[in-house]
Predict the structure of Ribonuclease J.
Amino acid sequence: MAATKLRTPPRLAKDTLRIIPLGGLGDIGRNMAALEINRQLLLIDCGVLFPEDDHPGVDLILPGFDAIADRLSDVVGLVLTHGHEDHIGAVPYLLRQRPDIPLLGSRLTLALVAEKVKEHRLSGVQPRPVAEGDRVTLGGFDLEFLAVNHSIPDGLAVFVRTAGGTVLHTGDFKMDQLPLDGRLTDLRALARLGEEGVDLLMVDSTNAEVPGFTTPEKDILPALQRTFATSKQRLIVTSFASHVHRIQQVLDTAVAYGRKVAYVGRSMVRNMGVARDLGYLTVPENTLIDLREIDNYRPDQVVLISTGSQGEPLSALARIANREHPAIKLEPGDTVLLASSLVPGNENAVYRVINGLTKLGARVVHRGNALVHVSGHASAGELLYVYNLLKPRNVMPVHGEARHLIANADLAVATGVPRERTIIAEDGTVVDLRDHQARVVGQIECDYIFVDGSTVGDISESALTDRRILGEEGFISVVTVVNLRAKTVLSGPDIHDRGFLEDPTVYEAVRGRITQALTDALEDGVDDTHRLQQVIRRTVGKWVSDTYRRRPMIIPVVVAV
């Protein structure tokens, strides 16, 4: 059922469990959910969404935790399912408001969060490491953690027992039966929980449209080896800075082909250092070198592992493609391997970088022309398996765009979950669970929170609209001086523009119109500069629209004497 334009939710009854997604439903990112029972809140994940082209000037987008800003004292804990940015990236911004929220997650996840906390100079943070098999009680929430396999080590699902019912939140997962680290999704635990009874399954939807089973991680090794074997000069490999398994494969292959490895990009250096220190990444001896040492080796003796797989403008790879990187200059014949997927919304940015690299003479190997990446998410076959194993009473697909959520719900129905018990929700949908039945009971505001430099939450949608207009259409400024008593235009209009036509002669055709419109307004008794500015805006706007079919931002200034 859809969750659009619903009523304000009712007061929560005693021993009823309320679930509110605060992000991640409709987007690939900013994953977060709030569970409430008897005035206590449990949060699951707190990630970021990376901006797209229609978010000019925005660095990050946070979940809608403004919706619970006045309830943070009721939060008993924040569960972090794994260490990807779309699940932990917003944690420091939440902790700014209440730093002592207990953080529950695996060792690697909490270590990655600790680095973020250090960057934000926060104190008083309370990490509580957990592992698969652990059970923890936080207020009215009894939590049990399960191992799940994903594209980053130490992923966890969480089973939540409450007086209102049980919820299983899968986090991001897949069912790779030959994982590189030997850590399988715990199917025995899932079967046991299915026997106990899962009232609500909140399940990863990212690959719900993909038939069959997700390809095992090990299957990319031949393509990786082939790329190394055919690269006669420098090789640059890009990946997510948290994809420890992929980096391990690159390190091992580099050793096999006699290449030294240098990390490029601050987040890559930081995350791989954390993974190595905790034993999740094995770096063969005499393999790793500092980036400043690469000129001491022939190009065919070096492989660079870089950030920038999503075409981020300030990433290392984008700077290399634009010839702006201070230490790396791409040469014709070099090879660049993009060992990652395309996050929806990033396609244009990635292909811009690929085109830039190709123009510089590089051979670019990517998912479109070689098996150099496999997904970290369960495909339809695996999701069907999970539904049949758990037999959930109610299902709420999470983590995906609308098409992913709907496809996932269809899979649930195919396995016997009644259609009316599959909830297609959106951010801010309020779902109450009681007597084994989940029902949509309302909707709350759950807007994007934009981060722009050091500014958090002060950028509105209207401000973004202004930025889009400035970027796409330019602006025209019109300055005039009027005498309100004499009802005359004393000076101007002086017209300037940026990003529109930037040809001052074209405005001769409209100056007389502006003067006449102002004179008419003054003679009609208009003596307010704001209303006179509106006269200018309407006059110039109509002229621009009629003449050029454009809609620049028009900035009128009227000085009254």
